[in-house]
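sry for the spam today, last one i promise. struct tokens for design, 262 residues
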């Protein structure tokens, strides 16, 4: 069981950050749904909920999602349904249930960098950045692969484009963790393929993407789907074996690419 010694309702990001780094047992709270499953002895739990970071907004270049935005807000956001072929809104809809999504935050979902993450898989296939209080703005992919540092994820920024996109996931039963998750997008710079829940955290399949540079035909799509399972590592856990995940990956990648070329 998690235990919490002190609670801070932060009045500024600066106060939250100074408190976070003051003691290695201090933590930022998102919706606490993942945190509460652990056994951590937390010294000070830092709550960001009064900092106005629960909004989804649009600028000229980006759709921005504040870290305390709930997954339910993401799912029901008109902006996110209308942009990126709706994959950001859609990718959360199978996560547990509505009450759960009312509480889970985008900040906790991205900062957690979970292997099973639907959210990371979809965001990696788009031109996504994170803004960290100390670390500044960086591409999501760099953040996902960086060493874990104490910092505050302030917001997620997705560059707007006319990209086509598709998201597919396979679950053993509705609301369970995904067995595999695939997101594909196509913008001016080419096709992006992201595969998560392998069961490792989401990764881009760059070699497969390169095979699609000449165009989306039956044979390039087939070759790209095959390349995905050669270049990415797949594994076994209690939900599925490696061989099954590889089969699924090929099928879901093909399905997703077929959708964006339709
Ligand atoms: C039973 C269960 C089933 C789930 N199923 C799925 C699923 O199928 N698909 C899926 O994608 N996800 C799934 N999740 C993950 C879930 O959607 C959330 O991503 C997860 O609960 C974390 O979000 P949270 O708001 O609860 O974060 P918390 O539990 O509060 O925090 C998680 C971590 O992030 C840190 N943190 C939170 N916010 C910030 C911030 N702004 N800056 C810095 N650090 C921060 C916390 O300190 C902690 O280390 C599941 C989780 C649970 C508990």
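last one done:
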């Amino acid at each position: 069981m998690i235990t919490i010694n002190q609670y801070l309702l932060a009045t500024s990001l600066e106060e939250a950050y100074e408190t976070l780094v003051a003691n290695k047992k201090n933590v930022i709270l998102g919706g606490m749904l993942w945190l509460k499953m652990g056994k951590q002895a937390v010294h000070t739990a830092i709550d960001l909920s009064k900092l106005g970071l629960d909004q989804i907004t649009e600028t000229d270049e980006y759709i921005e999602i504040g870290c305390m935005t709930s997954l339910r807000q993401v799912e029901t956001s008109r902006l996110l349904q209308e942009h990126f072929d709706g994959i950001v809104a859609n990718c959360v809809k199978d996560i547990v249930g509505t009450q759960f999504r009312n509480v889970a935050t985008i900040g906790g979902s991205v900062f957690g960098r979970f292997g099973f993450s639907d959210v990371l898989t979809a965001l990696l296939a788009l031109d996504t950045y994170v803004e960290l209080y100390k670390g500044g703005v960086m591409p999501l992919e760099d953040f996902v692969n960086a060493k874990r540092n104490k910092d505050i994820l302030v917001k997620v920024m997705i560059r707007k484009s006319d990209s086509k996109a598709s998201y597919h996931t396979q679950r053993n039963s509705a609301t369970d963790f995904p067995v595999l998750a695939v997101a594909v997008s196509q913008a001016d710079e080419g096709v992006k393929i992201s595969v998560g829940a392998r069961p490792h955290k989401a990764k881009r399949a760059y070699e497969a993407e390169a095979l699609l540079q000449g165009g989306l035909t039956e044979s390039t799509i087939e070759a790209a789907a095959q390349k995905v399972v050669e270049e990415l590592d797949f594994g076994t856990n209690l939900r599925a074996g490696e061989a099954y995940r590889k089969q699924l990956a090929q099928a879901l990648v093909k399905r997703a690419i077929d959708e964006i070329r339709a």
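The chain has three domains: 3-47, 56-159, 180-261. ok im logging off now
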